[in-house]
Amino acid sequence: MKRSMALHAALLGIASLGALYFWTRDDAPATQRADNVLIWEATSDRLTEIGFKSKDKSVTLVARKDDNGAYFEGRHESRDPLPEGHPTLGAADQSKVKKDTAKVTRFIAAADAEKLAADVAPLRALRRIGRVDKKRDPEFGLDAPDGTLTFKFGSLEQTLAIGGLAPGEEDLYVRYLKTGEVYAVSRDVVNRVRYADSRLVERALHAFKVPEESLSVLIEKGDRKRELVPVEGKTDGFADAKEPGKLDETAGNWMANVRRLRLSAYVEKPSKPPTLAQLVAKVRYSDKGKEIGFLELYNMGPEADEEVQYLGRTEHSRWFFSLVKSSVEQIERDLPSVLK
């Protein structure tokens, strides 16, 4: 009797382990971890273009490189999601909606775009679902994809059709068009491209920080110049290069205002190119005698029905950018006291 009970217990244990194995086992590649699910192999230095396209939006990021490093030129085009004749618009509102009008934004992407490039080359998925019968496409939101995501590595183009949210709403189902296989990828990767005009746009004026102990600053306006150097141990503390130990609070406050400048929007090609006469000031940054960057500020003067517009440009921005009027006015007003 005891031997029979022991045998039954052993068989029950084996059966339980077998059931647990079949219940918890991965359906082969479908639940592989992210570090094991490779969609494509690539290196970020070969990435030449990133694109997103849906029915109401398109984004293009083209890789560029200059003496200051790698960056991307971005183009974001969006269309009104309620085209003319949309049933939710009242008759009085129909005339206000223009058909086939698009809003285009141009911008520069640098640091955050480089991080994205590293995340997609190589591209890894959180889960591999595998090939899915077309009849099951609605389960993954792939019967009517939300758009396509494209990455070009030279002449090689890799494209993902974007499906619906995976359970937990942190991941998205995508179909890799080259193989037809379905994966769950990070929603963040897709959204960084989809909303590149806000998520990837470069806001920093320089790739370096100001002030740094080894940094010197040359301020220029016409034939007037003055060189400043940071004062050790003083935040935003600057002194004249001829008297490096003597703190100049006026110069320090002026440099603090310059440091706090933030670009409002990129202006690839100003309708009227800035002239030397419109230059508010030029600031040159040098590290141990070698120039590493610059900042140009321009007062474009009153435009028709517009306030005074200020433009800026740095080695890191590549393009001109607009600035909030109030942020530059103080800099322009205090400049004479700095260039004493």
Give the DSSP E fraction (strand runs of 2 or more residues): 35-45%
Radius of gyration: 29 Å
Q: Main sheet, how many strands, which sense, barrel?
A: 9 strands, antiparallel
Count of runs of 4 or more consecutive helical residues: 7
Kindly state the percentage of residues in helix: 10-25%
**Which overall shape is indicated by the principal axes computed on the Cα atoms?**
elongated
User: What's the number of extended β-strand segments?
Assistant: 19
Provide structural commentary.
A hairpin with a 2-residue loop joins β3 and β4 (69-79). The protein has two domains: 29-199, no CATH class; 215-338. 22% of the residues lie in helices and 36% in strands. It starts with a helix and ends with a helix. It has helices spanning 2-24, 91-94, 111-120, 187-194, 196-199, 249-259, 325-338; strands spanning 38-40, 47-53, 57-66, 69-79, 102-109, 123-124, 127-131, 148-153, 156-165, 171-176, 181-186, 215-221, 224-230, 238-240, 263-267, 279-287, 290-299, 310-314, 320-323. The chain is of the alpha+beta class and 340 residues long. The strands form three sheets. Strands 5-4-3-2-8-9-10-11-7 form a nine-stranded antiparallel beta sheet. Strands 14-13-12-16-17-18-19-15 form an eight-stranded antiparallel beta sheet, with helices on one face.
In short:
The chain is α+β, with helices and mostly antiparallel strands. 22% of the residues lie in helices and 36% in strands.
List the helices and strands and how they pair.
Blueprint: H1 2-24, E1 38-40, E2 47-53, E3 57-66, E4 69-79, H2 91-94, E5 102-109, H3 111-120, E6 123-124, E7 127-131, E8 148-153, E9 156-165, E10 171-176, E11 181-186, H4 187-194, H5 196-199, E12 215-221, E13 224-230, E14 238-240, H6 249-259, E15 263-267, E16 279-287, E17 290-299, E18 310-314, E19 320-323, H7 325-338
Antiparallel strand pairs: 1-6, 2-3, 2-8, 3-4, 4-5, 7-11, 8-9, 9-10, 10-11, 12-13, 12-16, 13-14, 15-19, 16-17, 17-18, 18-19
Helix pairs in contact: 6-7
